[in-house]
Design a protein that fits this description.
alpha/beta, two-stranded antiparallel sheet, 9 helices, 11 strands, about 35% helix, disordered N terminus
């Protein structure tokens, strides 16, 4: 440990001036760099491409542990690295060393691309706890599997990660359907990559949807909060540790 940290002489009364507008601008420009330089595709977990920003990954791990999550529902598996990450974190806190058993937990992940199954199966221990659905998140098959699993498990705490189609209508449709699988006040739905709703983004901001100005995930989130989610979910900015690609996308369940 650094001695200068242990023996810091900085008075606790020292005040630092912070310009929040400058910080917001810094994050906006940093995300632009992060997106346009494809920084999000340069990391891996267990040798599998992991598209999660490291800050957000740590925040997710905290939620899983601190809320003793027993069921994760993920849309948009990509290659399955996130599901493997969820499973490895959950295995640690669901394992009872004294009894040498594991309290039940499950990750349901889905994607129209079947590639994730191959990568998940590289790790048989973790794969045991992962159900992969090679179908769209709002397909009848996906809905049936999620519903049956939920009824069978009767989970006390659920974390939902929406990382599939990022267009506004798709995000809104997922929020409307999957909100019913959040059983406890305090649990989260994470609408991922809301910063894609940036005016410079040619894919999501050439047209507007709902309240606009873009046709991306933030517009889907905002529309949900004004309608079905009003009074039941709020944006929790406290989960945006330092830098989050899910700006205003951490939705906290506050009432049934």
């Amino acid at each position: 440990m650094r001695p200068d940290i242990i023996e810091s002489k900085t008075p606790s009364s020292v005040n630092f001036s912070i310009n929040n507008e400058n910080i917001d601008q810094f994050y906006a420009e940093f995300y632009k760099y992060y997106e346009l330089n494809r920084e999000w595709i340069k990391k891996s977990y267990l040798g599998v491409h992991f598209l999660q920003n490291p800050n957000d990954a740590l925040t997710i791990a905290e939620i899983l542990h601190d809320q003793d999550i027993d069921l994760v529902i993920e849309t948009g598996s990509y290659r399955g690295a996130a599901a493997l990450f969820f499973a490895s974190v959950m295995y640690q806190y669901r394992y009872n060393a004294s009894a040498k058993n594991i309290r039940p937990f499950k990750i349901i992940t889905m994607d129209i691309n079947p590639d994730a199954k191959t990568y998940i199966n590289r790790y048989p221990l973790l794969a045991t706890y992962i159900t992969f659905i090679p179908h769209a998140s709002v397909s009848s098959i996906a809905k049936s599997i999620v519903n049956n699993t939920f009824v069978e498990m009767k989970p006390a705490n659920v974390f939902i990660s929406l990382d599939g189609d990022h267009y506004a209508q798709a995000v809104y449709d997922e929020l409307v359907y999957y909100q019913k699988f959040v059983p406890s006040v305090g649990n989260y739905i994470l609408a991922q990559d809301t910063r894609l709703s940036s005016k410079w983004h040619t894919l999501y901001c050439t047209a507007s949807k709902f309240d606009g100005p873009c046709n991306g995930p933030q517009e889907g989130v905002n529309w949900f909060l004004k309608n079905e989610g009003q009074g039941r979910f709020i944006i929790d900015r406290n989960k945006e540790y330092l830098f989050s690609t899910h700006h205003k996308g951490w939705l906290k369940h506050i009432a049934h």
